[in-house]
Structure formats: C-alpha cells, structure tokens
Design a protein that fits this description.
Largest sheet: 8 strands, mixed
CATH class of the largest domain: Alpha Beta
Number of helices: 10
Structural class: alpha/beta
Length: about 400
C-alpha cells in the first residue's frame, strides 16, 4: 500500500499543482466560496464521486466507499477553502485575479492536496475497507466557522466518522517535514468589543469632561493582570488589543472610544472565567472614573484537542512515509482553528506540513507575500491518503 500510494502521488502531482494554481488564481472570501465549491465538486465528479454541495452554505462533501465492507467504519478527511482580504504581493504568474482577495493562509494548498488524496484513494478503492468522508469546508476564517455550520446543516446526520484528520501548511517548517502534537494543541479564541463612554469636550478644559480615552487606557493596562496575576502560570493565555478608535482630534476629547481584541487559552472553564473578569474589570474601572463601558464578547472556536491514538497514528504513518528524521513533535500554538469543533465530536488529529523552500526568505501565514513550495502538494496528498488507508485497515477506537 505504501509504495502504491507514493507512486500514485507522483503520477497525480501535476494535476494537484494545476488544481492548486486554479484555486490560487480564483480566491473567494468566507461564505462567498460559490465558484470554489463548484470547482471542487467538478473535480470530485471527474473522479467518479457524487459530491453534495451547499452544506453549511458553501461547503462540499463526498463519500468514497471502499470495495471491502464499506459500512464497517468511516474515516473523515477535511480541508478548508476560503481566502483572506489581502492584496497579493507574490508576483507569481498564477497570482490572485480577484482584487483585494488572496489565499494567504494556504487553504488552496489544503484543498488541492485533499483532492489529490481523494484521487489516490479512488484508484485504490477496490482495496479499501470502509468509507472515506471527504469534507471541503468553507468559512474557516470567519465566525461562526464552517465546521460548525456544516455540522448544523447535517453533515454527520447520516454517517458519523470514527476518526477525522486534517492538516495545515506551516511556513516555519521546511518542505519535506511534518509535525504534530498530542492533546491540547491550539487555543480557543473569542473576540472582544468594548464601547467606553465618557463626556467629550475641549482638550484645553479636560476637567469639564469625562475622558473616555483615559478610561480606555486604564482598561488596556489593567487587563494585563488577567494573564500576569489571574491565569495560572501553567495555563497559556493571551489577551491582545488590535484596535482602539477614539475619533477625536488634537483638541477634542471624544464622547466614546471603541476597542477590539481577543482572548485565547486552553481550558473551557478558565475561558469563561476570563470573560467574567474582563467584564468586571472593564466596567468597574469605567464607572470608577465617571464613565461607562459596554462589552460584547463574540464566542469563537474552542481549543483544539488532538486524540492521543489518532495523533500517534499520524506520527507512525508519517515516519513510514517520510522517514523518522522528517517527523517532529510540536509545541502548543496560540493560533486558533475551527477544526476544533470537529475534534470535540470525533477522535481527531490536526497536523502540520512544512511548505518553506530551504534557502529562500521566510514569509508567515496571513501575509501578502506568502509562498508555498509546491512539492509539498504531492507529499501532503500522499501522506493524507496513506494515513486514511491505514486508519481504515486498523481501527483505534470502538464504535
């Protein structure tokens, strides 16, 4: 099976690259992925599959039933395919043709690689025991997240997978390497929106005003104690402010200030305690200084937990596929991922595939100059297919 999959991955590599380049040229924002959905569905039909479109709005899925006892078990494979509101600056000949929109998080690579894995598994269909569920998810970059939207729309109503796997490209890691982590891997995320109200006036007579900029400044500073003095030193927690808008002038104290930020951590009970502390500190400070504060907390994704046995499976299969020197255990990350919704429901592993070309400048995700070594497409497609085939062949969890 290993040699067969590696051979097929090499054979289909040009197609996978072509698919990725088409997706890269035609990016679509979250909840707008109609053309992307149609393109993915057409490629699946070309393989002889019968995709279901419109799941969760603009999502797509298909079942690949193996030739041996297809109802015995099911393994799900997932990729996301929405883009970001960035103007591309790569200079690539297949750069985005959609102004102000770019695949700057590698979702084009994820989707093309999963299509490649599907193409490999279709070729091996008579030898597969069980069923593979292929999930192409929209809107990972925007709340409430495509994973939850697809599940709310009945993704698992007819068939609930026994295990689910997904990966994300990692620009910090060179092409040819993969990595994973057991247990808690990525943080929960919630968006925070403050409106701090005071009483505006002339900057030369501040004693006649209630300065919301001063109040907001105190809130920003005071909330740092949430991490330094309220969070356990053993519990990673990040509180960050990304936007503060007073909309006054050099000599005008405004009536209100609006602020935006995030809170991220790795424990659901502590996560909700954070919400209460942020509200109490913010509102209490504002009132003590003569103003008021409204805080809206938009609940985001939970923390991502990788099942130990699923993750060990990916590790062992990656060692077999690439060699032990190419597989790494990773640290926790404060980034967030809505695959966590799937991982709450089904034993899961979310792993990383290196995409950096050694010897070239590094560019991070969510950057307009992000580059991906296209050799990673063949690697990812083959590894995903091999892991799925092995998962079907050897159950880890009781039904």
């Amino acid at each position: 099976m290993l040699t067969s999959i590696q051979t097929l991955a090499a054979r289909f590599a040009p197609d996978i690259v072509e698919w990725r380049r088409w997706l890269h040229r035609h990016p679509e924002l979250s909840q707008q992925e109609h053309r992307t959905m149609a393109y993915v569905a057409d490629r699946l039909r070309d393989m002889g599959l019968q995709p279901r479109t419109g799941v969760g709005g603009t999502g797509c899925m298909a079942l690949l039933r193996g030739g041996v006892d297809p109802d015995s078990r099911c393994v799900a494979l997932r990729a996301d395919y929405d883009a970001l509101p960035l103007t591309e600056a790569t200079g690539l000949p297949y750069a985005s043709e959609t102004p102000g929109v770019m695949h700057a998080c590698g979702h084009d690579m994820h989707t093309a690689s999963l299509l490649g894995a599907a193409r490999i598994l279709v070729e091996l269909q008579p030898r597969l025991r069980g069923t593979v569920m292929l999930i192409f998810e929209p809107s990972e970059e925007m709340y409430p997240g495509g994973a939850r939207m697809m599940m709310d729309d009945g993704l698992f109503d007819r068939l609930t997978p026994d295990e689910i796997y997904s990966f994300h490209c990692l620009p910090e890691m060179d092409y040819g390497y993969v990595g994973m982590r057991k247990g808690k891997y990525m943080a929960s995320t919630d968006e925070l929106y403050w409106t701090v109200r005071g009483r505006g006036g002339h900057g030369a007579t501040p004693h006649l005003s209630v300065d919301p900029i001063l109040i907001a400044s105190h809130i920003v500073v005071a909330l740092q104690q949430l991490v330094s003095r309220n969070a356990s030193p053993l519990m990673p927690t990040t509180l960050s402010f990304g936007k503060i808008n007073g909309n006054g002038r050099t000599n005008i104290i405004p009536d209100e200030v609006k602020m935006e930020g995030i809170i991220r951590t790795f424990d659901e009970q502590w996560r909700h305690q954070c919400h209460d502390l942020i509200r109490r500190i913010s509102c209490g400070l504002a009132e003590s200084m003569g103003g008021s504060c409204d805080l809206y907390i938009d609940p985001g994704y939970p923390y991502l937990f990788n099942d130990d046995r699923c993750t060990q499976r990916v590790h062992d299969n990656a060692v077999a596929y690439l060699g032990a020197d190419r597989v790494q255990w990773l640290d926790m990350r404060m980034t967030a991922e809505d695959f966590a919704f799937f991982a709450q429901k089904i034993p899961a592993c979310y792993f990383r595939v290196g995409v950096h070309t050694p010897g070239t400048p590094y560019s991070n995700l969510h950057r307009p100059d992000l580059l991906i070594d296209e050799r990673s497409l063949q690697l990812a497609a083959g590894l995903v297919a091999y892991n799925a085939a092995q998962a079907l062949a050897s159950p880890l969890h009781d039904k």
